[in-house]
Amino acid sequence: MTDTDETQDPGTAQADAAQPGVPVSSGRTADRRTGWLAGKHPFVIWAWGLLSLDFTGIAFAALFFCWSLTPSLLPRDWLFQGLIGGISAAIGYGVGTAIGWAVYRFYLAKRPWWPLPPRYMQVLKVGVVAIAILAAMVMLVYAAGWQRELSALMNAEGTTTTGYIRTGGLSMLVAAAIISVWRVLRDLGRLVARYLNRWLRVPRQAALPLGFALVAVLTYALVTGVLVKEVYALANSAFSLQNDTTRAGVVAPVAPEKSGSPDSLVPWDSLGFEGRNFVSRGLDAQELSRANGAPAKEPIRVYAGLESAPTADQRLDLLVDELERTGAFERKVLVIIPTTGTGWVNPTAAQAIELVHNGDSALVATQYSYLPSWISFLADREKAAEAGKRLIDKVHERWLTKPPQTRPKLYVYGESLGTQAGEGAFDGLADIRNTVDGVLWVGPPNSNVLWHQLVSRRDPGSTEVEPVYSDGLVVRFADEVADIAQPPGPWWPPRVLYLQHASDPVVWWSTDLILKRPDWLSEKPGEDRLPQMRWFPFVTFWQVSADLANAAGVPDGHGHNYGTSVLDGWLAIAAPDGWTQADTERVRGTLEAIAGSEGPEK
């Protein structure tokens, strides 16, 4: 962002230049000595400078704000829209002041007719402000309509036009705060430059850029090296306290097939919040028998929390010992589940696996962080990949020691950041096919290396939202359940399947959105994305960033909420022999009943 003192309205700059004592770079719309600021304390003058605005910047701020009101992937309420609108307006203001400075410097300054007479300049300025306000109000009305349309597309409750108008006021406050912070940093740079010139005799031409550079470096170091570090430490401490709690109604299991039971090698108290949820939930053998109409086995669930052993290696040793103790290597399927940051495992996915195989299954997972997925995504992505690799390698190593004719089918399941943890275990598709019997990955982040390679190398003619890789012979991508069978040709085992909604911001968020239009925004929109969504530099990045905060807050089948589609995904890679569509609907009904009785995750 540029400085209004350096890039103010060209007409104002030249008019001020004609007044004694007011430099062209002043950027003030009135002489400080003759206006109301005359005689005021320097701090008052400086504070007023934080509020004065450049009119070219205002025009571009309004443009960027209007862009931010266009629809993105998910419905946004007025609060999120206000934040994104304010950030976008502040960026637009910076772009506008830079353009205004360049136009004046290289064009208007050389024209004898500039500046216009004061009367026309005032009309021009008033007109810019009036048009900016009018355009913003009109766009707010349109935006409310787009948000209702998007909400209806996802069977969610929409906003009201009057309620959405609040966006404008919040955006103004956010933009003003950002611009003021920038100006404070700018003035600090000038102060440093002044002292460099006075004390170290640095020439003025060099002192100013050097002062700005020093302030920029110190600010970056403060934010990344101190502020961010302390925020992460504070978050880790806060969420470690939650890790010691237990969800209401969750009790220690008594079945020996579960970690945390009296027979377990892993103490119940060491499993953590998500680990205790995982081992205590799901249907037991009797409930599975009633649901499936056939005798079932007691499902095995093995888990290790961060406090289950002092080191990561010791936790992994504990896990494989638990697998041995429970007889997991004698079941039909063994599923390795690299988790999200806190160790969360999607309960619907876990229950789907156990229902499909009537309890003849073993699930194994571990916790590697106290931080929730969205913080881990920013701070612990490498840690997630490393944790996933170590878990899969350790279980696979023990699995290889079992007789091939009796050992279980080995699968990998992952969701969200868990897909990144899972991908970290493999060098590519060939490695996956040589290691496991199938993979189901749900809602992969855009930064996943393997996912990105496969999508980038998709078959010509296929889209980024619905890519086809090598005719779908090994790996497939599905937006909807019906897409799993596409293309209709052969699908060789072991199969790899990615479930990814067109409206899932976790899948499509990337820093590349700042300056580059992605293919998915150039193509025909997916099933649950409005065609009115467009790419705008800077703005789209912040829109999708806001969508991340509500990624799972939409109904099943949209955003990052995959509901019972994980059942269809699981059946695509590991359906038992003789499985029918009637079996699928029976299991789906059971999953929906469980979800309705347990309520949403907390």
What's a quick, concise take on this entry?
Helices cover 51% and strands 6% of the residues.
Task: Give an overview of the whole structure.
- The chain is of the alpha/beta class.
- It folds into two domains: 10-201, no CATH class; 244-501 and 562-596, no CATH class.
- The chain has 21 helices and seven strands.
- Strands 1-3-2-4-5-7-6 form a seven-stranded parallel β-sheet, with helices on both faces.
- Helix 4 (78-106) packs across helix 7 and helix 14 (381-400) packs across helix 15.
- The chain is elongated.
- Residues 1-34 have low confidence and may be disordered.
- Residues 1-29 are annotated as: Disordered.
- The chain crosses the membrane at residues 43-70, 82-103, 123-144, 164-185, 206-228.
List key phrases describing it.
single chain, 602 residues, alpha/beta, 2 domains, 7-stranded parallel β-sheet, 51% helix, 6% strand, elongated
Task: Walk me through the topology.
Elements: H1 10-17, H2 42-51, H3 55-68, H4 78-106, H5 118-153, H6 161-164, H7 166-199, H8 204-243, H9 272-280, H10 285-292, E1 300-304, H11 312-326, E2 333-337, H12 347-356, E3 361-366, H13 373-379, H14 381-400, E4 409-415, H15 417-423, H16 429-435, E5 438-442, H17 449-456, E6 475-478, E7 495-499, H18 505-508, H19 539-549, H20 565-574, H21 581-598
Parallel strand pairs: 1-3, 2-3, 2-4, 4-5, 5-7, 6-7
Helix pairs in contact: 3-4, 3-5, 3-19, 4-7, 4-19, 7-8, 11-14, 12-20, 12-21, 14-15
Protein name: Alpha/beta-hydrolase family protein
Transmembrane segments: 43-70, 82-103, 123-144, 164-185, 206-228
Keywords: Membrane, Transmembrane, Transmembrane helix
